[in-house]
């Protein structure tokens, strides 16, 4: 499949780079030294760096706006970073409880809490507020440019929880 058939050059290139970043991030995470590394208090950008590398969210941000929908690149490109942020960190928020129950403490929330010397709950609350702010900025900006429909469908799809009757427990 040729992604340049579905996206213009800039989005297609960014999708490719995001894919390479994801592979690099997974390699970083899988290195034995990384699993045992203690975060340095001065490395305040480390959790974000690793999250951006391992998230692949930049690709998903561009996936939202295909050529077929005919959105003007200028109508949404300024919001790609907020969309990427939303995608990376909403995932962390939604998976935090499950990871905490499983005893996983190498995730973004725990790492950021350790580096910023805040509690996990304060960090969770802080990230929640940041995610809501990114969502609001993106929604408002894309309403102005007329590129909001693909974004709304995508974001609502991520956050929509099916009724219990639709969930198979088997």
TrEMBL record:
<dbReference type="InterPro" id="IPR008949">
    <property type="entry name" value="Isoprenoid_synthase_dom_sf"/>
</dbReference>
<protein>
    <submittedName>
        <fullName>Uncharacterized protein</fullName>
    </submittedName>
</protein>
